[in-house]
Protein: alpha-glucosidase
Amino acid sequence: MHRARLNLLSTLLCLAVLANPCLSAAVKSKDWWETAQFYQIYPRSFMDSDGDGIGDLNGITSKLEYLKDLGVTAAWLSPIFTSPMVDFGYDISDFFDIQPEYGTLDDFRALIKKAKELDLKIILDFVPNHSSDENEWFKKSVKREKGYEDYYVWHDGKVNAETGKREPPSNWLQAFRGSAWEWNDVRQQYYLHQFAVQQADLNYRNPLVVEQMKRVLRYWLDLGVAGFRCDAVPVLFEIETDENGQYADEEVSGLTDDVDARNYLKSDLIENRAETIDMAYQWRVVMDDYQRIHGGDTRVLLIETYAPPAYTMQFYGNRSVEGAHLPFNFNLITGPASDGVSASSIKTAVDSWLNNLPPGRTANWVIGNHDQRRAASRYGAANADAMNMLVMILPGASVTYQGEELAMTDGEISWEDTQDPAACNSNADIYEQFTRDPSRTPFHWTSGTNAGFSTAQKTWLPLAPDYATVNVETESSAERSHLKIYKALVELRKTSTTLQKGSTKYGVLKENVFVVKRYLSGSESIVYVANLASKGITVDLYEFDKTLPTHLNLLIRSLQSSKKENALFEVYELSLAAGEALVLSTI
Ligand SMILES: *[C@@H]1O[C@H](CO)[C@@H](O)[C@H](O)[C@H]1NC(C)=O
Ligand SMILES: CC(=O)N[C@H]1CO[C@H](CO)[C@@H](O)[C@@H]1O
Ligand SMILES: [Ca+2]
Ligand SMILES: [Ca+2]
Structure:
């Protein structure tokens, strides 16, 4: 039927049932990213197509059907750009080309083409804060070539009055241990690097840099990407030099003797500055302009920030300006991680996002990425389904890090096999505190050699030990598995208007049971209950919500559950085994 006639018809229908539900549905109609299932691919470890032990673009392309089958809306890829791989692609030497071991621009075009055929969106990692020291911009800046003199943050340092020796401009430390300043012999100045020595911070007070980085965004938009996930945004700007041309020192907390580890009282000189928020707003303009000119779906901006809510929430925009579509919400990582997962720590994490969320903005939930230990290891394998359910039942977008759908756990990496600079910059005795390698081990496709990831003798990181049982092949053929539960959840999110548009109520019951209710007038309510304790318990859901009906229908259950799906359960006396998590609905 013709679209206009359809619209007319639905308008008439609306009038017939008298406004309200129709009106709110019309107003609340959601854009694709607001209910999206995002999936993070770590390209180096997803699929190796040519047997060199390293994942690559053709490998990803060959597995896009898997993502489609999972129900993923959009995949974001960690960096695939030309890089010396000091920080595995987060040190970019050419922002406009593909890392040769991952493939070519043509391979990337083929990836995008296949993704479009499958109606999957591809999002790239944008790494705005720094470039590799092998980037031509840096080389030109070292030589003070015209136009590049101030591309990076350069400083003479200061001369120590007692020793007469030159010292770094300030006491700032890099994220990977040691000074954030590196002396350059050629230019005879220090440059700033908030991450590794080989990751030089770009100078965002230079309009040429701002414009160059917008060029990067448009270049990849032209190649068909659906948006960007922006890396390490809060450290974009640092404080300016004072009237004497000097940088202020951060105040050290004194809580540890480890002089190489960042332990500042506030660290507000080197991160979370106001100018950074405005830069995100400028990138949003790039996205919106692009859509206006070229048409197509909304191009999204997702922002990585580990910052206090008052800062993070500003990225969404304010009453007059649009900002990022979604600043990533890491509360479920940073909160529960410290004391193991408990219902009360989840509640605190959810509160801190939803209570601070500006009106009309979309929430999102992340439980892992390539910088953290894997979710199933952090929350406990027994809680893997409970956590996957949680991020899909809570309102807004949900994000999966590759392998969470299988409940993959951390790899065990010896000091000899260690690759991550955050660990390599330490030593054999303490590297495990810093290493991010365990969550970066290759993805598990099968129970065969190298888990079907690669035909190489040796993969770039060893496989995690549990691949024989935790893999796509085994979990797909099992009657019940984490993977099947995950797929059922994605399916439910897609089909349930309540999950897409409904209101949210949540709370803690007994010692360690977390409950969420999603509800929408005219639709069924969805109730999530998870017992995060190590022993069984019986709960009365009326203590949580007196308006529930006497019985709820079971839709999805965690592996620990021996209940039956599509059966009714009494609300006032619901027994839950240890680790049992359920998704129920009113009939
Ligand atoms: C919104 O942000 C813009 C850009 O940073 C700023 O100029 C403006 O004052 C802000 N408006 C409000 C209402 O906070
Ligand atoms: C989660 C994430 O993307 N972390 C990255 C933040 O930025 C630094 C520097 O670019 C990387 O090392 C991290 O992997
Ligand atoms: Ca390869
Ligand atoms: Ca910076």
Q: What stands out?
A: The first strand starts at residue 37 and ends at 41. The mean pLDDT is 93.
